[in-house]
Specification:
The chain has three helices and twelve strands; from the N terminus they run αβαβββββββββββα.
């Protein structure tokens, strides 16, 4: 009589059916400085922002001093889209689009499961990220605390740290600051799941033009050259 191995098939079906889904919702982040007592630095760095998250996609909406912005990052494609809204300054909306290129950067991850934090109700472990420029051999370190409880490890792709395992709820970056160094920290303070968050939540706002079409004064205001490209090199 031919045997039918139903149990392994059923177990596989159950496992796949209950696979962890990617988080969809909002994350409230706070930014602050440590390692300094300079009141100017402490006040300038301090702030809060709310980030909309759906798997490997994030969106942050800001409005400050008459300038609005929508920043949408897709870890699946490596594309960052930024819509700058200058309507209150008698200009329009302009799109800055960029695709991450890490072909000349090597990322190393040192995970420490023994160094943990409880952040916004989630268990997080420490990760030290070392990013090395393969052309200059210069390297930078960033300290993260990541959780494995938000995203499906098989599908999640970090937009900033390719190959990172876990979702960062805490990022600490050392800033030289011309002899007055400090550490800038971004830390999650509240997470709110929202089943209404979906692909439509990351559609670009209407009415924008490419940054190349912006007047020269707008490009200068944004620290860009005449070609619409940032004059400063991106940090990794």
């Amino acid at each position: 009589m031919k045997k039918i191995f139903l149990l392994p098939v059923l177990l596989m079906t159950i496992t796949l059916g209950f696979a962890q889904k990617d988080f969809g919702g909002t994350i409230k982040m706070k930014t602050y400085a440590t390692g300094t007592e300079d009141a100017n630095i402490l006040s300038q760095v301090q702030g809060e922002a709310e980030m909309t998250v759906w798997g490997s996609k994030t969106k942050v909406v800001n409005s400050q001093q008459g300038i609005g912005s929508v920043i949408i990052v897709d870890g699946n494609t490596g594309i960052t889209n930024i819509v700058i809204d200058l309507s209150l300054m008698a200009y329009g909306k302009y799109l800055i689009s960029d695709t991450a290129d890490y072909s000349t950067v090597k990322f190393d991850y040192e995970y420490d499961a023994n160094d943990t934090k409880e952040i916004a109700g989630y268990h997080c472990k420490k990760v030290v990220v070392t990013a090395t420029d393969l052309e200059t051999d210069e390297s930078n370190n960033v300290t993260l605390y990541v959780t494995d409880d938000l995203m499906n490890a098989a599908t999640y792709k970090s937009p900033s740290y390719p190959g990172l395992k876990g979702f960062p709820l805490y990022t600490a970056r050392y800033i030289e600051n011309d002899g007055n160094p400090f550490t800038m920290v971004n830390e999650a303070v509240e997470l709110k799941p929202d089943k209404k968050i979906n692909a439509k939540s990351f559609i670009l706002p209407a009415g924008w033009e490419p940054i190349e079409n912006a007047p020269d004064e707008v490009k200068q205001m944004l620290g860009m050259g005449a070609g619409g490209e940032d004059e400063e090199e991106d940090e990794y």
